[in-house]
Specification:
Elements lengths: L2 E5 L3 H8 L11 E4 L2 E9 L2 E10 L2 E8 L2 H11 L7 H8 L5 H5 L11 H11 L4 H15 L2 E2 L2 E2 L4 H4 L4 H8 L5 H13 L1 H4 L9 H9 L6 H10 L10 H11 L3 H12 L6 H17 L1
Antiparallel strand pairs: 1-5, 2-3, 3-4, 4-5, 6-7
């Protein structure tokens, strides 16, 4: 029998987290909008199982379809970033008319995966390509190398992927130049499982966190910033071609002036400035979905 527990999360907050960026459409995540839900299998050092998180009435519930209940609770807290306290930043945003939207919409949390290893691998797959290809490479990776858990394939473990040759990764996944980067990440995950497969990353400050993930080949400064924001350990602002274009549309800021402009605009939020900035960039996506 499935086991359930109610979460301290509203359907609206749940939706904000799910659509915070593109991870929800990447395997092994399965999501539905009506009713709003996220289901996925997992295969991590703490165990194997299948989780469903679902909106119900005015709240949300965790349904453990398979695996240890406490492990499922911990994974849910992790993937929904419920382990971060935003009360202080919400108070600050609420006192500033320019940022009241951040508090009102309960923005700040970004969807993660069960491990830092998985988030890093998906970031490598999303670099310098269209997102449709990211989806395809991830689907192939999970289908070919993921553990079958009651008919669903979990995200592959680094132990399983370590047995795969670079040539096979290139040919079967179509990941091209990314194949050696995957091998570098696999090596790091096996070398430091506490950080990449468990919760050792929580003890790291922003600098150390960035150092650990930037040691992986193929994870450059932009990717480091993205992952750091997902883990609420932002190092600096993510400035890519989309941001440059969007900033000029919103504020008329030219590329050579953008970095200083962002520091000035979001400086009052301290280390969380880059996170507030990201939601400022993409909140129109969310408004269009409502």
């Amino acid at each position: 029998m499935p086991r359930k527990i109610e979460l301290q999360l509203t359907p609206k907050d749940f939706k904000n987290i799910l659509f915070s960026h593109g991870w929800l459409v990447l395997a092994p995540y399965e999501y539905n909008e009506k009713p709003l839900s996220l289901k996925f299998p997992y295969d991590i050092p703490a165990g194997q199982g299948i989780i469903e998180i679902r909106a119900i009435d005015r709240g949300c519930e965790l349904i453990v379809l398979k695996g240890p209940f406490k492990t499922a609770q911990k994974i849910t807290e992790r993937v929904l970033a419920l382990d971060t306290d935003f009360k202080k930043i919400y108070r600050q945003a609420g006192d500033d008319p320019d940022f009241a939207w951040f508090k009102k919409r309960k923005f700040g949390r970004l969807l993660r995966t069960p491990t830092l290893f998985e988030d890093c691998l998906k970031t490598i797959f999303s670099a310098n390509t269209v997102f449709k290809r990211t989806i395809t490479m991830t689907q192939k990776l999970v289908a070919l190398y993921g553990t079958d858990i009651d008919g669903r394939c979990a995200f592959p473990t680094p132990q399983r992927l370590a047995k795969v040759k670079e040539k096979e990764l290139r040919e079967k996944l179509g990941c091209g130049y990314r194949a050696p980067y995957l091998l570098s990440l696999i090596e790091k995950a096996l070398e430091k499982p506490d950080i990449f497969l468990r919760d050792g990353w929580k003890a790291l400050d922003s600098e150390r966190f960035a150092e650990e993930i930037s040691a992986v080949k193929g994870i450059g400064p932009g990717a480091v910033n993205n992952i750091s924001c997902i883990y609420q350990k932002p190092k600096s602002f993510v400035i890519d071609s989309y941001v440059v274009k969007r900033a000029e549309e919103l504020w008329g800021v030219k590329p050579d002036k953008l970095e200083q402009y962002l520091h000035d605009k979001y400086d009052s939020f301290g280390t969380f400035g880059p996170i507030v900035f990201w939601f400022d960039m993409v909140r129109h996506w969310k408004e269009n979905r409502e």
